Amino acid sequence: MLSVFDHGPYAPCPVPFNMAAHVLDHAEKQPNKVALSVLGLTGATHWRYGALRDAVLATGHGLLATGARPGDRVLLRLGNTVEFPIAYLGAIAVGLVPVPTSPQLTAPEVAKVLVHLAPALILHDDNVACAETDLPILGIQALRAFWDGPQAEWQMGDPERPAYIVYTSGTSGTPRAVVHAHRAIWARQMMHDGWLGITADDRLLHAGAFNWTYTMGAGLMDPWRVGATALIPEPGITPEQLPLLLKQHEATIFAAAPGVYRKMLKRDEPLDLPQMRHGVSAGEKLSQTIHDDWQVATGTPIFEAYGLSECSTFLSGSPSQPAPQGTLGCPHPGRRVAILGPDGPVSIGTPGVISVHRADPGLMLGYDGAAEATAARMQGDWFRTGDLGQMDASGAIIYLGRDDDMMNAGGYRVSPLEVEAVLATYPGITGCAVTDIEVRRDVRLIMAFYTAPVPVDAEALSRHMKEALAGYKCPRAYFHIDALPTGANGKLQRRGLAQIYEALHGQA
User: Fold this and answer.
1) What is the distance between the alpha carbons of residues 366 and 382, in angstroms, rounded to a whole number?
2) Crossing angle between the packed helical segments 83-93 and 49-65, to the nearest 10 degrees
3) How far apart are CA 170 and CA 296, in angstroms?
4) What does the pLDDT look like over 459-488, one tens digit per residue?
5) Taking CA 217 as the corner, what is the angle to CA 213 and CA 220, rounded to the nearest 5 degrees?
6) Whether 205 contacts 249, CB under 8 Å
7) If DSSP codes are grouped into helix, strand and coil, which group holds residue 64?
């Protein structure tokens, strides 16, 4: 029996279609229901469905008034505020292609994005780094001014046309621009039952920032699509303060990365969350320890999901079908998933690469300007994720790690090659390697190892890295070593770095 799980075809995406119109469909049915509450310790700001839709369409009209035309790219350099999702959906509403980017990117990193994308417009918060450019720029005040202006019509069209672009680090060390179609939002409906278990009566609190793609998807667009209420903490709210907000605002579902759950559970005491039905987790691997500790503290489970930038979440447990212990869960209804070896799907119980069928509505259109890289991820009818897994007879998949050296820094996938390329430019360094290492239970940090005639100044090296890379990409510590671990053929063996770290840590 082969490791192929096929739920059968999912209902096709309607034609014509617009992703933003689909997300805000409930604004017509319930304009006065609260769609979004931004939560502070002393109160909350509320957005109702009707007002949210109006702001999105008015923003779309304003963006077109700048001279941008359907199909143009719009770079988002915005902070953790409500302007981010409104601008994102406003662009999509009128056929523009927004490109959300991490606010942690440095000006040199943004400059590379500008060269590659050639956006028609940049939406820029002054508190977020941006490169010098002659391209048109709109600030926060200009975006807010759009909200009370005239409104555009939904730009309906082919669901296969580009809707948005997100960046992901590739194994080459060069971040790839992942182009998604409008139909990508249609695919997310499969996870409403397959993972979130969300209904119109739910109040889902996502612990992430507005400008994180995990928050945009599970924290905003999924609740809005079903007519639920999204709850987002104000900037500055700490994980330790979240239990109070969850209780005060009667959250029924909590979404966060594993690290947030870990910090909330530090006190090792019960959490009084009477309305909570369950938590959901994504962004990095959830440990069984965190899952079990949350169950004890709240009396509710956490349902972990697996997905990637190139394809929406497609594996998880759910309230209706919890994942067998030790597995990621099963493919969602409508998904076709396989475990591939060199010659195609492998037998049940055999390790291989987790792969999703190329006809999946959530799969990307491709990497922008990189047809060869797109083709390299395909094997026949399958898109290879690059992660290893093993399927049992029920379809549940055990996660076995990655078949490359990609690192996970707090939910962000980071290529070691990108970090090493900057590290190697520091004067005196003759060789270097980076990897993520588990420094304590459920905590992985990026560590750097280098060779040099003498140790270099650690503070100066740290400043050098932070000038060129986003903070989450920068190593937390730098170790001067005699030689990098290599194999018989001289190839770097990053797995050996963990042993070096343990030896050095033991000597400290």
Assistant:
1) 13
2) 60
3) 38
4) 999 999 999 999 999 999 999 999 999 876
5) 110
6) yes
7) helix
Full-model pTM: 0.90
Structure tokens that stand for 71 in this block: 């199909």
Contacts (Cβ under 8 Å, ≥6 apart) of 260 = 207, 239, 242
Q: Are strands 477-480 and 443-451 parallel, antiparallel or unpaired?
A: parallel
CA distance 508 to 101: 38
Output the six-digit token pair for 386. 């690059």
Number of C-beta neighbours around residue 126 at 10 A: 10
Q: How many whole angstroms separate alpha carbon 114 and alpha carbon 97?
A: 14
Helices (H) and strands (E) in the chain, counts: 17, 28
Contacts of 261-268 with C-beta under 8 Å, sequence gap 24+, read 261/286, 261/290, 261/294, 261/302, 262/290, 262/442, 262/443, 263/238, 263/239, 264/239, 264/240, 265/290, 265/293, 265/294, 265/297, 266/240, 268/293
Nearest to 485 by CA among 437, 427, 418, 435: 435
**Rg of the chain's alpha carbons, rounded to an integer?**
23
pLDDT in tens, 193-209: 999 999 999 999 999 99
| Sheet strands side by side (includes 162-169) | 162-169, 175-181, 366-367
Closest CA to 505 of 452, 455, 447: 447
Interstrand relation of 397-402 and 382-391 (parallel, antiparallel or unpaired): antiparallel
